[in-house]
């Protein structure tokens, strides 16, 4: 009976430790909605979140080859409203891209640029820790730009060459006509 009670006590202890560990982590997932080619992202953490880590995931799907640029910023207001961003990453299609951190005074921001990404589903992740006594927040944006496929670029260049050829041919015909009129006169 004593072994049974020790086993139950151990199991309950492990469950409680797991609950405490989960309470120290704030997780969120948000589907990104683009307006034209831009979307805003951000999160706020209120009272009682100081000392907790967070991981905010922003998911989106893009249907063709594209370039992406994104930035997030957190501005500390003394120690009242503040957080520390520890990573800013984009992952999808088996690749991970890491943002670059910059700091100016109490302002911390990350930028992330990735070129020629293939169509598919992506996750833009912001991770960090809440350090303000009343929480903290961050905000940012995502901008995507479609990249023309090689076949479309070739067709465009072919079209420009055809227009140039037609213009040259028309100019030569006009020059020959003017010269013919001059000789006849």
TrEMBL record:
Residues in the signal sequence: 1-23
Signal recorded as keyword: yes
Lineage: Bacteria, Pseudomonadati, Pseudomonadota, Betaproteobacteria, Burkholderiales
Keywords: Signal
Protein name: FxDxF family PEP-CTERM protein
UniProt source species: Herbaspirillum lusitanum
């Amino acid at each position: 009976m004593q072994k049974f009670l020790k086993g139950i006590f151990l199991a309950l202890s492990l469950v409680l430790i797991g609950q405490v560990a989960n309470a120290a982590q704030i997780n969120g997932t948000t589907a990104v909605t683009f307006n034209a080619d831009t979307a805003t992202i951000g999160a706020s953490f209120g009272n009682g979140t100081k000392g907790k880590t967070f991981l905010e995931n922003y998911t989106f799907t893009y249907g063709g080859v594209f370039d992406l640029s994104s930035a997030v910023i957190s501005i500390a207001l003394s120690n009242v409203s503040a957080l520390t961003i520890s990573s800013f990453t984009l992952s999808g299609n088996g690749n991970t891209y890491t943002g670059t951190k910059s700091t100016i005074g109490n302002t911390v921001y990350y930028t992330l640029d990735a070129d020629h990404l293939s169509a598919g589903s992506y996750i833009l992740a912001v991770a960090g820790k809440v350090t303000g006594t009343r929480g903290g927040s961050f905000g940012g944006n995502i901008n995507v730009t479609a990249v023309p496929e090689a076949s479309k670029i070739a067709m465009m260049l072919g079209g420009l060459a055809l227009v140039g050829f037609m213009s040259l041919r028309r100019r030569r015909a006009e020059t020959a006509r003017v010269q013919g009129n001059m000789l006849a006169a």
